[in-house]
Design brief:
The structure is a single chain. The chain is mainly α and 70 residues long. It has two domains: 36 residues; 33 residues. It has three helices and no strands. It is flat, with a radius of gyration of 20 Å.
């Protein structure tokens, strides 16, 4: 569990900002969102495959764009 301790003379807004950063870094919310609904193993594999395909397309697009400029 993420927690922050208020420093001496620190305002509540800066404390809240530090807490939000800590929660983001610990990936608590993303884990909760992922586990919100049941996803079968086959669906997870399918999503991972689509993500990898899109990542590769994006990488290839960048390479082609650099070659056109050069």
């Amino acid at each position: 569990m993420t927690h922050v301790v208020q420093k001496e003379g620190e305002s509540f807004t800066s404390l809240l900002k530090r807490f939000r950063k800590a929660v983001t870094r610990s990936r608590v919310l993303s884990d909760v969102k992922k586990k919100r609904y049941f996803i079968s193993k086959s669906e997870k594999r399918h999503r991972a495959l689509r993500k990898a395909i899109n990542r590769e397309r994006k990488r290839q697009h960048k390479v082609r764009r650099r070659l056109r400029r050069g």
